[in-house]
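Provenance

Sequences were taken from public entries as deposited. Structures were produced by running a predictor on each sequence independently, with no templates supplied. The record for Membrane protein from Litoreibacter roseus is shown for reference.
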Amino acid sequence: MTRAALLFLLFSCGSAFAQMTLTFPASTTQLHSNTEDFTNYPLPVGPYSDGSIPTVVAEGQMTEATWRLNAPGTATLDVMDDLRQQLESTGFELLFECETQTCGGFDFRFSTAVLPEPLMHIDLGDFRFLSAQRLGEAIPEYVSLFVSRSNEFAFVQMIRVGAADTPPVVSEASPPASTVERPSLNTETLIDVLEQSGAVVLEDLEFETGSSNLGTGPFASLDTIAGYLNDAAERTIAFVGHTDAVGLLQPNIELSRRRAQSVVDRLISDHGVSENQIRANGVGYLAPRATNLTDEGRAKNRRVEAILTSTQ
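Predicted structure for Membrane protein:
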């Protein structure tokens, strides 16, 4: 599926850091973008408590931007998890992250900077926030993200404060997902590997960017596993989701479980597999199969694994 890479070049070309890149689905619409040459922004670094939010004062050039994602069924957790990973991959350090209740609910929402409707939509029952910093330059760089949603759309607000002479926002289209090379999968030996080793990685699965939703497929691994289970009602399989080590443990566990559940749901709805034969679990980054110090290793760690749980 085609994606649009919205490249936000948010610091001087002479910076020692890589350019900050945020990738959204192709159906994303930018609702607002504004830059002030020099101002200050009270960046939240903790939840609302005792009548206020703890903040640090970020000074410098400030850019405010908002986007609307055409993402029915996509959880705010999934959107924020993907954006957090992208920030951390370019050198940002997480300062604070929260969801509706841990942020402070209504009081947090109305005690910090949020652009008005229709530029930004906040559902008071479902929003997430994070703040991050990137040090090492003469002027520190700070970013905050708000994520919320309506019935059909997800909404993202970004406030960035840092050095002046920031390059403008640039939009580019990334190649269709079909052109991205996927690991090879030998479906002829998949069941043999599953029965002999007890587990097999489903290398051909693809998930939508920033989402736990399984791609449209078809996926040969699911065809093969469905045939195996439908021919042997006594067999049972657990699908276990895994992530890389970017971000906090609990959000990664939740995302990995949601992705495994998407696999289970697809096997039931499209392949007629009995729900009594399959279940979903997630372990986040607790069971890596490669190093998390490289892009290649982190990509290998993001996976769904089928584990044979039958004992006879």
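The first helix runs from residue 76 to 89.
The helical segments are 76-89, 100-103, 105-109, 187-197, 220-231, 249-271, 295-301.
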